Amino acid sequence: MAAGTPAALSLASSSSCPNFLHPRRFPLPSKVSGLPRAALAEAKSVPALRGDASGGLAGNGEYGIQVADAAPILSIRSRMDRASDIQAEARAMTRAVNSFVYTPELLSARYGSRPIKVLQRTVEILTALGNFAFKLFLDQRQGLLEQRKRIRAVELRRIFTRLGPTFVKIGQGLSTRPDICPPEYLDELSELQDALPTFPDAEAFACIERELGLPLEAIFSSTSPSPIAAASLGQVYKAQLRLSGELVAVKVQRPNIEEAIGLDFFLLRGLGFLINKYVDVVSSDVVALIDEFARRVYQELNYVQEGQNARRFKKLYADKADVLVPDIFWDYTSAKVLTMDWVDGIKLNQQEAIEKQGLKVLELVNIGIQCSLRQLLEYGYFHADPHPGNLLATPDGRLAFIDFGMMSETPEQARLAIIGHVVHLVNRDYEAMARDYYDLDFLSPDVDVSPIVPALRNFFDDALNATVSELNFKTIVNGLGAVLYEYPFNVPAYYALILRSLTVLEGLAIYADPNFKVLAASYPYFAKRLLTDPNPYLRDALIELLFKDGRFRWNRLENLLVQGRKDKDFTAKDALQPILKLLLDPEGEELRVLVVKESVYATEAIVFGSMSDAFNSIPQPVRSLIFNSNGNGPLNISDAERERMLQLRDRVFRTWSLLRSSDNFDPSLLQPILQVLQEPEARILGGRVVGGITQRFAARLLQQVLRTPVTAATPL
């Protein structure tokens, strides 16, 4: 591919130069002015760099830098303070001030007076999609619709590719909607990531010069001879900054893309009006859905917005040492050009290449899952397009996130409801699961969920033959997709993107380990949140998980502690204090009754279990002599009850042992707990526990005196 024509190098006036590129501050070598652009594109690769400049958007290492072996380089950006960075971002925003913003009125004004162009595009679209629809009709008439579903899915993907960026985006959107598309179509449409061919380098380089107001040679000392990657809206080059020597990835927008997608959305809105007016079976406002989709696509066309997305993502999630987010070079960024750190890495689906670097795919996928859970359920701001090309394994074992054009947010109510939904799934409480769909905004409040409960029960009773952690996430998505397809669900865009995100990560892991389960990898995070988060919704979910029919399920608490300890951020202190505060809450009377009961049972189990152990430690002849051959010694209890108490005693001890053996356990964490226990409510609760224990022991003593079976007393 041609790299471009020779061009003389001359710096623009100070008004068109980024501040730190002014020629009086950083004069360029005079020899550079004679270099043709082709020479720049084919320049010898630069020495490797180390540090945060490591990286690349394409990930095969061909142009990559070796992070571990290179000497550190102090970049110009590292000497710029935050104020300078804000100023650079402001200048980038100024360059993007005239970027196209989606409004239906502007589309109508632009294309309403161009009937010939509209007619030509309409014929092109109708011919392609009409031919596809006719094939589906024939398949149905011949009874081959199911048999040919995969073939038709491939054809639809190719049609979307030929029709251009708008339909590629539509295909990508449909690939996340199990409530709309069958699994075969979901699989095929998910491949629409790099579906379009590249455009000429000369046009890309001209766009860079036009957007940044500088000759290409004034900015870069070299660029890759061809694009490193190409997608629906743009393509990426690797380059070296002339002044600092840093390696960067430069994303350039496709020429005239606004014209192409604008015309398509104009036509789609017209179709939406017809559907709203004449198709009664569709209850949603189709025009509103098209407008929302169009706004998302147009946001992706503003690369300054994408840079701001990357900055926000880095601030929220790159605090973890194993997550890498590239920095943005604001002085080389505009609405149509985005320049960021080059990330040297390997695509996450290239298992063999990753293992040659001494890395493990499963460890990297687990990093991605933990980061995704934080995105989805902690802050709610998440990377909505985590396909393998956007997730890279760096040589030092970090997971790099790139391409921040498509981001989404999970509402707080939905974040909590998702965690609650997992609790209800563990408990097999299908009625509660169905009610969760109100909080998740799947159903309007006037929809009756009772018909949905049997469908959930039929699916999950079959799927839950194993534990929840053993479920395959894609199986759940497909099963839920079938339920969603049958009932009047309205799946929010954020939820469809969540499903897509986690399904992609599990699919990557399955390449390395066919038995990998994303829910098993996610469980430590859920356990940590349930044990440590003071949010009232999650506290109620924890109570629901731990108590059943008035009894405390110690095995559940033990399992939560075992799983929670696997999360790096789990601390025993965080797990204990919120529970105590909940107990002392004025509205916690129902919980206090349950806790008093269980405290009595646990104390009894510890005391009588220890007495039983002491009895068993006495030699047999002595036991027979003292207790007249009574196998239970001084305790007149059945073998079954004795076994129950020993099991409960052992579970209590194991739970305490798990807390004590936490990596960050410190006896001083008990100090704030003791302070809480000094509060009047705690003293009252303690008195009730002591009273219950006294009653229980009195009943036991009376049993020993009368030598009659004891009934299960209910502590007050």
TrEMBL record:
SUPFAM superfamilies xref list: Protein kinase-like (PK-like)
Gene3D superfamilies: Transferase(Phosphotransferase) domain 1 (1.10.510.10)
Domain (Protein kinase): residue spans on this chain: 222-552
A molecular function (GO) term: protein kinase activity
Domain of life: Eukaryota
Record family assignment: Belongs to the protein kinase superfamily. ADCK protein kinase family.
Protein name: Protein kinase domain-containing protein
UniProt source species: Platanthera zijinensis
